[in-house]
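To illustrate the input format used throughout this study, we show a single complete record. The first block contains the structure-token representation of the backbone; no residue identities are included at this stage. The design step must infer an amino acid for every position from geometry alone.
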């Protein structure tokens, strides 16, 4: 999918600009909805309280802070339904799980229970689309490539306003989503039996 972006003109956004731009556009996504794919196996999320607890080895607090997000996510799920906006996430997961993914999959399971449809694919499913950028699609014509530094910390995004590009990216994500495994069954098999991860 990288080749699709190589031929498009994007606008570079800082992390703050990306969050603001995304927030301004999200509820106007319309019937084309929201799509996200994550490929990297490790990120750092210092803005997230639960991640910080996980990263310092406080697993019970990390889980509690994830669960405390449930009311807000349930409210988001209700609004998505009211606005007729579908939200889809594809997560590429390699085994054995990295500690980060062992943490993130707990969060994504909650997201799937409350708001978005989340499926997991393995690297063999992702391979035909490699190299895979970290993408967010909104509506009919907005594509963000979310950027990270070498440590996996968010470093802004490139925004593309291009209907054909967004449609092409969405088609690829649909293909991956269609062959993915529901996160709930994946979680019960691959995540639930594991000991607490060490960040």
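Output of the design step:
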């Amino acid at each position: 999918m990288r080749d699709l972006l190589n031929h498009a003109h994007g606008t570079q956004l800082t992390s703050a600009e990306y969050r603001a731009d995304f927030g301004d556009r999200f509820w106007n996504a319309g019937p084309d909805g929201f799509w996200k794919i994550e490929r990297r196996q490790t990120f750092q999320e210092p803005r997230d309280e639960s991640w910080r607890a996980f990263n310092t080895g406080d697993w019970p607090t990390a889980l509690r802070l994830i669960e405390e997000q449930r009311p807000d996510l349930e409210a988001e799920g209700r609004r998505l339904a009211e606005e007729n906006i579908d939200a889809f996430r594809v997560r590429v997961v390699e085994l054995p799980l990295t500690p980060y993914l062992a943490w993130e999959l707990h969060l994504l399971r909650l997201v799937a229970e409350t708001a978005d449809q989340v499926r997991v694919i393995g690297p063999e499913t992702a391979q035909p689309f490699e190299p895979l950028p970290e993408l967010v699609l909104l509506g009919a014509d907005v594509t963000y490539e979310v950027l990270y530094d070498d440590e996996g910390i968010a470093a802004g995004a490139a925004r593309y306003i291009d209907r054909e590009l967004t449609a092409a990216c969405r088609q690829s994500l649909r293909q991956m989503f269609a062959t993915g495994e529901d996160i709930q069954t994946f979680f019960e098999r691959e995540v639930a039996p594991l000991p607490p991860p060490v960040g």
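Structural context for interpreting the output: The chain has nine helices and eight strands. The CA atoms of residues 79 and 85 lie 8 Å apart.
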